[in-house]
Description:
The complex is a heterodimer of chains A (112) and B (431). Chain A is an alpha+beta fold. Chain A has helices at residues 13-22, 70-81; strands at residues 2-8, 29-35, 42-46, 49-53, 56-65, 89-95.
Amino acid sequence: MKLITAILKPAKLDDVKDALHAVGINGMTVSEASGFGRQGGHTEVYRGAEYTVNLVPKIRLEVLVDDKDVDSVLGVIVKSASTGSIGDGKVWTTPIDQVIRVRTGERGPEAI
Amino acid sequence: MEAAVINSGDTAWMLMSAGLVTLMIPGLVLFYGGMVRVKSVLNMMMMSFGALAIVFVLWIAYGFSLVFGDSVNGSGLIGDVSQFAFLKGLDNSEAVIGTIPAAVFVGFQGMFAAITVALISGAIADRAKFGAWLVFAGIWATVVYFPVAHWVFAFDDFVAKTGGWIANDLGALDFAGGTAVHINAGAAGLALALVLGKRVGFGKMPMRPHNLPLVMLGAGLLWFGWFGFNAGSAIASNGTAGLALLNTIGATAAAVLAWLLVEKMRDGHATSLGAASGVVAGLVAITPACAAVNASGALIIGAVSGALCALSVGLKFKFGFDDSLDVVAVHLVGGIVGTILIGFVGVDIGLFNGGGTEQLIKQAIGAGAVLAYSFVLSYVIAKLVDLTIGFRISVEQELAGIDLAVHAERGYEFSDNNQGNFLASSRGAQE
């Protein structure tokens, strides 16, 4: 099993969510995050005082998948999240030892 | 006071005006509160509420008497403290001042004192001990505001026989407080910022406004309340009040445009904070002038004030004084602009409007006297408070946030999770 973590542009969340739903992914965790990469930040002005804001708002989307689905799900996320411009984000996978569904106590791939 | 008659129209308008002026306190609270960081929003708001509380109590005890009592020895410097001590003879339903109940006049003028003190707090955001601020507010009202208001607002034979020197001897025009309120508060803000010193990280760390919609709402409420402040200063429901109201709209509209224009040319963007600041810059500048100019004069005053105030907000970084919310750039500069420009565009008296330089010189003397008196006294009072009880919180407290350190509260809680445990109520530990 793998945990897929995707850092996305907030505006692309709906596209990614719908694309994942369409390939049968029915659960995910989404949280608001902030960070920066090559995109850098932006400038804000308050009464003439300029500030550079280098942490920009991002979405962190997490999905647990069975090993056999990893590549296809990664493909779906990358395709649906892409705008082709800088700041589109990153996706990575982490190996997972165990998953338990709290309600039923099911373990492993059945719990996903 | 002999056989004065209450006019119900005047009374109705002044009751409403007193309410409008009181609304300026929550307006200022939102305007200032939105401009500071999340960790100090409550303290910023509390400084205004605290000022209102302490100043109005002093107002009843002796403030009104110091402002509107007979000038001591006819000097025009300060009113007789015993004449209306605890509003002697005024706090009943029969006493009359002008054409309205004395109680209404006292309440209306008392809010001016409270707001003037509250305005100063913008200069010392995030870093002042609350108790020290209250002590300063009480002393400052007593030693600075009450005398200056006597100079400017106490006309001979209105409340008492003899009034203040600026209103009667000098004859400088200040309809609703360009000198007594705004130059006064602005100069005090400068002195306080100098005595307290900069916030930790001033000019290096970002100190962005945390909630600009609050600032916009605050500016809107201030504008609304200012109709009571300016048009109410006619102390009557008449044409002067009407002219003051019209000019209060015109000048403010022009100031917003001017501020935004400066921003667009200087910074590349017209900002909402700039619009809200332009509102206040316009209101401040038209305050002394609202009954002395026509509509075009009001537009000129507003535009000049909006532009000059917008250009002045960078001075604190250049000269290194942390006037946190720009009390100097908005109230001192705007107050001077309005007071001086009466000498140029005042109907029949202004240099450009049928008069000579006579009024202009009077205006400059009035503005300069209030500025100098307020700055020097404010500096001394602040220094005394700092040397005795200490004016600033510790660096650790400041970094952690003054709300938690001083008030044991936080402004915002967006989640019911992670609330901690109940420890005790004020009646003792819970069983």
